[in-house]
Every structure is written in structure tokens, then in C-alpha cells.
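FAQ: What does the model actually see?

It sees only this:
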Amino acid sequence: MKETIDFIKKLNINDKYVVLACSYGPDSMVLLNLLQKENLNIVVAHVNHKLRVESDEEELLLSEYCLKNNLIFESMNIDKYPKGNKEMNAREKRYDYFKTLLKKYNSAYLFTAHHGDDLIETIIMRLTRGSYFKGYTGFLKITKQENYQLIRPLIYTTKEEIINYAKNNNIPYAIDYTNKEDKYTRNRIRNHILPELKKENKNVHKKFIKFSELIDEYEVFFEKETNVLYNKLYVNNKIDLNEFYILDNIFKKRLLHKILLNIYNNNIVVITDEHTKLILNLISSHKQNSYITLPRNIRVTKFYNMLEFDNYNDIAKAYNYTLNTKVDLELGTISKISKTDIIKSNDLIRLLSSEIVLPIFVRTRKIGDKIEVKNLKGSKKINDIFIDNKVPINKRDIYPVVTDANDNILWLPSLKKSKFDKQKNESYDIIIEYKKRGEDYEK
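And it is asked to produce this:
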């Protein structure tokens, strides 16, 4: 325990409050004892998961211990779990609760009782199922969060050392019998793999600590370089692929992973290596305009030399508006105006009402749409115009098409005008203007 005790002393916390996540198991009760010996102001934070019949009794015993030792005791119950990963849901609820206590007591220190054996189990689990590079650190002695530090002093100790310390110092605790069941991956590693590793080296946890710290050291360097690339190459949810192609493979993968982390709010459970592979396959594809969909309606689209990430609703975004004075759209605004000094622009069209059938509509494209292009004999497919002008594939289904009441296509704003367009020196009584949002398409 000497390394753990020395580590706690070096924190030099003094008279500030600390929050301890405490379950009444041997690990957290031993850590509570060590913190008590340092005379720290301890808030004992207990979460009753209501998953075992013994849970209520253990909560009561812990509260009585805190009362007897003049410690602040805070607790919460988790009565219901949503469908899905119960362990992950419970973890999220626990840490949300701990954050409220940190704020309540104006504390910047959250202690947990993760020990050396836990570290081995975590790293082996992640190596087995796959993870991203940083994930292979398992966890560190200190993890800096936004408003607090997550501290794990028992990382230097083994479960056996913790049990022996508890017995020698008459520390009360309860054993969770479910830890012996082979139902969960972590338990199988704990019960079968870990003992074999300890036969090879009883202090194998210290080797895993060094491994964890080495991974973290490299991770700091890689993350610094990745942040530079992220800020340089990822602009307006797009990557310039010409710049991306020249990157080393490791930074290609890390850049994509960072983008996904930000999109999914650092929820690493949602992201897998397969998602990165899918994006890389999309990028290397010979198709000039294609896309893939990822969990939670995220779409990644490749169009020519660009890669774009956006939210995509599977429900159709088709629309059909009557243009009275103005129509606001996702891609821009179409408005009737009274006058303009602009002589010629694809963002402006002049019409003569007697040549068309009013009212004017703004809609999305339909299958088989064609426009009789100004100064061109015959008609042209709308889809061909999109391709010629390199309109991203994920914008084509929501791109505005201006028509009259007989569904004659009058104008593809910014792209093509129909034969109904009038010059400034001709007769016209309608002027319509288009103001785009965001970047222009490549012409």
C-alpha cells in the first residue's frame, strides 16, 4: 500500500472536499480508510443499483459507517434501466450523479477504487474486442476532466493486497457474489486469465501500468498532431480530399476517428473500427458521387474532391411551396423583388407573367425532370445539370426547382435558366432572386 499512500499524500489536497465513489465493497472501503487517515474532507457517494437483494442492506451498512465516522453520506437509487447496454447505462447514471455532487460541494476531485487488477482486465477486454489507440491505455492514475480530476490511487495495488489490508485493519465490507459468475466477459478474464498471468509475474499489474502510460505518452503526441490536421482540413463539415490523400495512413485514420468522436459527442460505444474502414473504402472508391450511412442518421458523402459529414433523416425531405413573396429553404432563400441593378446572373431570373401560368412554385426534383434551357435547342435532364455542376449527391434531393402552375421548369437557381428567362432590355414583370447559404458548388 505504500505507493498508494505516497500517491495520495503527493496530491496535496488539504482542506478541500473530495468525492469518493463508494460501493461498500472491499476496494472502495479500503480507499475510504486511506483517505480518512489523511484527514481529508470526504463525501461518500453511494449508488444503489437495485440489482441484488443485498443492495439495500449494503447501503444501510455504509450509511451507518459514515454516521459513526462523522462522514458526509450521499446516495441515489437506480430503479429503472432503459433497453440496451445495462452496464453502460448504469455507468452514465453514476457519473452524472457524481458530477452533481462535485458541483454541490465545490470539489475538483473524484476518487474511484479501480485497482491494478481492474487495469489488466480492462486492457485485455479492449484488446480482445478491439478499440481505438487511446482505449488501450485502459485507465490512468489521474484523468483530467473538464471541471474535475478523476483519481485512482489503488492502481498500484492488487485485489489480494486490498483484501489483506482490509482484514488486517478490521475494515468492514461486503462481497458482490456476481463477480464470481462467468456470465460477463470481465468476470471470465478475472476468474481464469488473470490468475494465469499472476503465475508468470505476481506484479504483472505494474507491467500493465507501464504499458498504459507508454500508450498515453504516444497518444498525447498523436492527438496534438491530429488536432492541427483537424483544424486545417475539416472545414464546414467537409474534408478536402486532395489534402487528405497525402497524409500518412495513421493520420488518415485518426483524423476520421476524431471527426466521428465529435459528431457522436465522444460516445466511443457508438464508434468502431469498421466505421473508419467504411469511410476509407468510400474515399478510395472510383465513384465520383456516392455516400454511406452510419449510426444515428449520419451520412458521409464523397463528391469529387470533397468528403462531407452531415445528419440525414431517412424521411423524405420533399417540398412544394407556392412562391408568394419569399421561400426559406435549407440551401438558401428564393424571393420576389421589385428591382435590381444586376444585369446578368444565374442567381436571378426575370419572367413575363403572360408567358407562364401563375402561381409560381418552388419544389424538389422529380424523376424525369427536364428543363428547356435558354439558348439551347431541346431540353436537358435536371440530374445531368447536377452532375455537370458537381452538385453534391446529398444536396440534390433538396435542391430548389422553380416551376409555373403547369409544372414547366423555369429555373434551377444558380445553375440553369429556362427559355422563359428575359434579358433586362426585354419585357418582364417578375424578378426572382436566389441567395445561397454556405459555399458555392464547383462550376
